[in-house]
Design goal:
The complex is a heterodimer of chains A (about 425) and B (about 325). Chain A has about 425 residues and is an alpha/beta fold. Chain A has 11 helices and 14 strands. In chain A, a hairpin with a 6-residue loop joins strand 13 and strand 14. The N and C termini of chain A lie far apart (about 60 Å). Chain B has about 325 residues and is mostly beta strands. Chain B is about 5% helix and about 45% strand. In chain B, the strands form 6 sheets. Chain B has a 4-stranded antiparallel β-sheet, with no helix packed on it. Chain B has a 4-stranded antiparallel β-sheet with strand order 4-5-6-7, with no helix packed on it. Chain B is globular. About 5% of the residues of chain B have low confidence. Classes of the chains: A alpha/beta (about 425), B mainly beta (about 325). The interface between A and B is large, with 42 and 51 residues.
């Protein structure tokens, strides 16, 4: 029996009115997330349509913030004129005839798992993640948000996680429920999840108490207004509680559970540890992990305008070695765990770099032709999609636009791009057929 | 009785100083390095003194200005002079020479007479010769070339056949005796795409090191004082993982073991002391204070030496080392 209006009254389970009011607020435990979960629940109740392919592929998107040079990574041009050719050459890979940049020797042994698009092209030369993380200028709904909406939860794991500092895209038109869970820094032994942390004044035992309260309130509500909506609300709250209390979720984010040797294998740097966390999350059930190359200190991203700290030497000593180690370890690890076929790894940034070397001895922004690497997820290993011209300045063959890339990505993830829920994020674009 | 003798023996042993306590510090090392410790967006050059055993401290830095990044320090043998590269935001990298005794920059006419980037300075042991890599410098090729400069005469020095017109010569490093200059080049015909070469300033000719180079990129060479030992970084197969540090003995034509130095992480930018005993390098191993840390390795003991205060939570990098007192 629930009595309201008596400050000291307890309900049938012995809860005070004050406690009831606390539960009604629900902000005290981080359960303002319930709205997010409710939306997730609504989505999950619809039958998924994977376009008949039966694929249910997860995604790790490695965002090389700043715009990596295609000429020094996945589209080397060692035979070009002096003002274009960089100081690094091209090395053979384990795919006959396929060459990549000299600074990626470990990755060269994994190219049989990878496909490279060498003819990506758009016209936005500012540092915007929008074209390549949504498919369209003016769009802010990221790939991860669409995946979150269409595929929802798996095994209590949040469907969309972003690792690194914040990017300018997120839930977009799909709203707050489809914003990613954000992890700023995975390098500690215990990853902090601010969105899912209990507030400082709520101890774990009090949280459990309130959780029981919540159940009691919802049972009363259900009796009074039994309906499907109330039921969904209950499930949403339950999901939020699960994330706060689930051993599986907690363990997935707990990098301290990885042996030191595994952490070293990925590289004891933010990118390496982000790749490792991404693997842990995918393995636990997260559907889309977006890793942003970090910008913790100046010039640490791929925006290599200058010769030394601003550019080429940094690429030589930091960027490429870390990418080489982290990505190679990730591909190895996914394969050894049997996850590579069900996990698409995407590697790229907002654009490429100018073919002509500037006065600093480095390269500037260049969106008109650049490369993306895709691995796993059923992509044909060793495939080269499109081609750049002799200097890497324009697509010479089969240009791929961001909308086509979006359609390709969704299709690779097993999402039916003819689904009306997907059409706004693909429009009329078609996937790159060579990748299927 | 036996117990008494044993106790007496133990008391005598306790009264004797241990070997480490007894021996004076054999060396005084000076390490110059670049670090973001005080300025998260712009690194600065620091000096660190070490006793060659396990104690050391930061003893100074090169003053800088806002928005300027200083890196790649290179010391003269007595530690008085330190050449370094410097880059004001949105400007090309310049080469400077710091007099650590008079605490001032040394005037170097013509060195920075180029609108294009210049970096990787190196000094001969006496500080009289300076070399650096320059991009598209007038009078040189349109690509990266190594430029020699006579600090005493304050003018560029000739270096016949050091550079190639169509390829990149970079990362120069003098031997302390000033006779040899190691550098990297991507000239065709090497063992790999980027190989290490040695330029003999006396003979004015370049020596290839085919037995030392690999098909992979071999980078950032450093020489012992007589130019015989070559330390460098390479991602060649067979290492501990990522890039590793290697040490090659040119006279013996063999690689020297570096036990306990490399790890599964990337080890880079090694620098030898002139006597070849000490190696400083950067590693990203997980036990460090930050992502990139500077380590000091003693070849005589085959161990990494403790370096309290050398590293910070931010990146520490580009080390070089000279032995100020001791076995130099």
């Amino acid at each position: 029996m629930l009595r309201i209006g008596d400050a000291t009254v307890r309900n049938c389970q012995g809860f005070t009115r004050r406690e009831m009011l606390q539960v009604a607020g629900l902000g005290v435990t981080g359960l303002t997330l319930a709205d997010w979960f409710r939306t997730q629940e609504a989505r999950a109740s619809r039958p998924a349509n994977y376009g008949g392919s039966g694929r249910d592929v997860s995604c790790i998107f490695l965002w090389l913030d700043g715009g990596p040079s295609h000429l020094e990574t996945f589209d080397p041009k060692p035979e070009t004129p002096d003002n274009i050719r960089g100081p690094y050459g091209a090395i053979r890979t384990n795919v006959p005839g396929l060459m990549i940049g000299e600074l990626l020797p470990a990755l060269s042994r994994h190219m049989d798992k990878c496909a490279i698009i060498r003819s990506m092209s758009h016209t936005t030369d500012a540092h915007s993640p929008i074209p390549m993380l949504t498919g369209f200028n003016g769009e802010t709904t990221s790939y991860g948000a669409v995946v979150s909406k269409l595929k929802g939860f798996r095994q209590s794991m949040p469907p969309y996680v972003h690792v690194g500092s914040r990017l300018g895209v997120g839930g977009g038109r799909l709203g707050a429920p489809h914003y990613p869970v954000e992890i700023a820094d995975p390098s500690g032994s215990r990853v902090q999840l601010p969105q899912f942390a209990l507030t400082a004044d709520v101890r774990a035992d009090r949280f459990q108490h309130r959780r029981e309260l919540l159940r009691a309130v919802d049972r009363v509500r259900a009796r009074l207004h039994a309906s499907e909506a109330v039921e969904r609300m209950e499930m949403s709250y339950q999901r939020a509680v699960n994330i706060l209390t689930s051993t599986r979720v907690r363990d997935a984010f707990d990098m301290g559970r990885e042996p030191e040797s595994m952490r070293d294998r990925y590289g004891a740097n933010l990118f390496g540890q982000s790749c490792l966390l991404a693997r842990r999350l995918i393995e636990a059930g997260t559907r889309f992990v977006q890793v942003k190359w970090y910008d913790g200190i100046a010039f640490d991203a791929w925006d290599v305008h200058g010769a030394d700290l601003g550019g080429m030497v940094r690429m030589e000593q930091q960027l490429c070695p870390r990418l080489d180690q982290g990505l190679s370890a990730l591909l190895d690890d996914l394969q050894q765990r049997g996850l590579l076929r069900s996990t698409l790894v995407v590697v790229g940034g907002e654009f490429g770099r100018t073919p002509t070397i500037n006065r600093f001895g480095a390269r500037d922004h260049f969106p008109y032709c650049f490369s993306y690497l895709l691995a796993g997820g059923g992509v044909p290993g060793g495939a080269i999609i499109g081609a750049s011209d002799r200097t890497g300045a324009r697509p010479a063959h089969r240009p791929v636009s961001p909308p086509e890339f979006a359609a390709t990505l969704y299709r690779l993830l097993g999402i039916d791009i003819t689904d009306n829920r997907v059409r706004p994020f693909v429009r009329d674009a078609l996937p790159v057929a060579e990748l299927f | 009785m036996k117990r008494c003798l044993l106790l007496l023996g133990l008391a005598l042993l306790g009264a004797l100083p241990t070997a480490a306590q007894q021996a004076p510090p054999p060396h005084k090392l000076l390490i110059a390095f670049s670090s973001y410790r005080d300025r998260p967006r712009h690194p600065q050059i620091y000096f660190y003194e070490h006793d060659g055993i396990g104690q050391g401290k930061v003893v100074g830095s090169i003053p800088t200005v806002n928005n300027r990044s200083d890196y790649h320090p290179a010391l003269s043998l007595d530690g008085r002079y330190c050449a370094f590269a410097s880059e004001l935001e949105n400007q090309t990298s310049r080469i400077f020479l710091w007099d650590n005794q008079d605490k001032r920059l040394v005037d170097l006419p013509n060195v920075n007479d180029s609108p294009n980037g210049q970096l990787h300075p190196t000094l001969s042991g006496d500080g009289r010769l300076l070399a650096f890599a320059a991009w598209g410098r007038s009078g040189y090729s349109a690509r990266w070339d190594v430029v020699l400069y006579d600090v005493g005469k304050k003018k560029l020095a000739p270096a016949a056949s050091l550079n190639t017109p169509a390829f990149d010569e970079r990362m120069p490093c003098f031997s302390a005796d000033g006779r040899h200059l190691a550098f990297t080049s991507n000239v065709k015909g090497g063992v790999g795409l980027t190989d290490i070469y040695l330029y003999d300033l006396r003979a004015q000719r370049t020596l290839a090191l085919p037995e030392m180079n690999s098909p992979g990129a071999d980078l950032t060479p450093s020489l012992s004082g007589d130019g015989n030992l070559v330390a460098f970084a390479s991602a060649r197969p067979g290492g501990k993982g990522g890039r590793d540090v290697y040490l090659y003995d040119r006279a013996a034509k063999r690689f020297l073991d570096l036990p306990n130095l490399n790890s599964v992480a990337n080890e880079q930018t090694p620098a030898l002391s002139a006597d070849g005993r000490y190696l400083v390098f950067v590693s990203e191993r997980s036990a460090g204070a930050g992502e990139r840390d500077v380590y000091l390795y003693d070849r005589q003991t085959g161990r990494l030496l403790p370096t309290p205060g050398l590293n910070s939570k931010r990146d520490d990098m580009d080390p070089c080392v000279v032995v100020l007192t001791g076995a130099q």
